[in-house]
Amino acid sequence: MSSHTPSFQWLDTPDALDAACEQVANASVIALDTEFFRENTFFPVPALIQFTAGDQAYLIDPVAIPCTDKFRSLLQNSAVKLLHACSEDLEVFQHWAGVLPEPLIDTQVVQGFLGENPSMGYQKLVEFWMGETLPKDETRSNWLVRPLTPAQCHYAALDVIYLLKVWMLQAEKLDALGRRSWVDDECASLVEQAGRSVENDQQWYTRQRQLWRLTPRQMEAYRLMTVWREGETRRRNMPRNWLISDKLLFAIAEKMPSNRFELAEVEGVKPMLIKKEGDALLAMVKQALHCEEAMLPMRWPDPMHPAFKSRFKALKKVITAKADELGVAPEMLMRRRDIETLVMQDLAGEPLTWPSGWRGEYLNTELAEALKELAS
């Protein structure tokens, strides 16, 4: 168990928050964390925001106060901002502060580049580096209730205090391996992705593992419906599945209904959905039906087809060998989806989207050779 009883300050007025920002204004590294609630909304509801530059943690009450300009500036100053598994935290900052913390270092990403489990949880990370076991009791507690219990405040304060200590040890090993620039690139792209939510809506459909079952026209219908759903759930601030699930959108795209009767025949479509959203869904199916051939998405290849499997296997072999050589997990070099994209482009005779930066230097020559060997 952690022997550490953290020192923390509760901030529930704009003046107190601004004074705390001045305390850490000259720090070179600031650790951040958030607690939030997300059961019945699209956007996370911020319940607590923690930061520290040393042994004193600051706990902001976002229920009581809006973000101040000073804290906004702190999030964007030249200090390194530390987070662990940052994707949802970035949404909290985007929504509450209107800005994203940068320059960013995600300690989970760092761990992946140090050859460890690239999805290591925070408690495991602290145990790995510090030999300390942090309390877990408060992980699922209600962070919106006020006042927070002393146990909740201790838990929240330790989260950021230990993050700083872990990073100091990680940074040493990272520098010894000469991989700091890899981490900087990766984390900068996480911030960039988080800031492009509406652009990302356009690509949501590619997450569907069964896309190969759809014709290009069905795929366009599915794409249009996912873009619409993402925009609507954001606008109405409701969870995706409360409006309509990916599974149901996929079923509608498979059937391509032309009227409400046909829409009602799609398994899982309920009368209330037809009443509220039926016209919008049918309009998108119609739009896909009338889309010019040249504008349709490319047919997704069947992952079980021999031509696809042989290419995927050859590229995966190159990536696994290179990952072993570097002592990192293969997914830190190239994600499955990116390998699939390369295979699809190769099968379609399209220009290939090669990995860029340091990944490209390590991989591209051998990836190209692997594909060339299959073609010959």
Question: Descriptors for this entry?
Answer:
6-stranded mixed β-sheet; 376 residues; 6 strands; globular; alpha/beta
Topology:
Blueprint lengths: L6 E5 L2 H10 L5 E9 L7 E8 L3 E5 L8 H8 L3 E4 L3 H10 L7 E3 H7 L8 H9 L19 H28 L2 H15 L2 H5 L14 H21 L3 H4 L2 H10 L4 H5 L6 H19 L16 H21 L3 H4 L2 H13 L8 H19 L1
Parallel strand pairs: 1-4, 2-5, 5-6
Antiparallel strand pairs: 2-3, 3-4
Describe it.
The chain is α/β, with parallel strands linked by helices. The chain is built from 17 helices and six strands. A six-stranded mixed sheet has the order 1-4-3-2-5-6. Helix 1 runs parallel beside helix 2, helix 5 (122-130) crosses helix 6 and helix 14 (306-326) packs across helix 17. The radius of gyration is 24 Å and the shape is globular. The mean pLDDT is 94.
First-to-last CA distance: 60 Å
Mean residue pLDDT: 94
Backbone CA Rg = 24 Å
Q: Trace the largest sheet across and list its strands.
A: 1-4-3-2-5-6
How much helicity do the residues have? Answer: 55-70%
Shape: globular
Largest sheet: 6 strands, mixed
Number of helical stretches of at least 4 residues: 17
> What would you call the structural class?
alpha/beta
Structure, briefly:
This protein is an alpha/beta fold and 376 residues long. It has 17 helices and 6 strands.
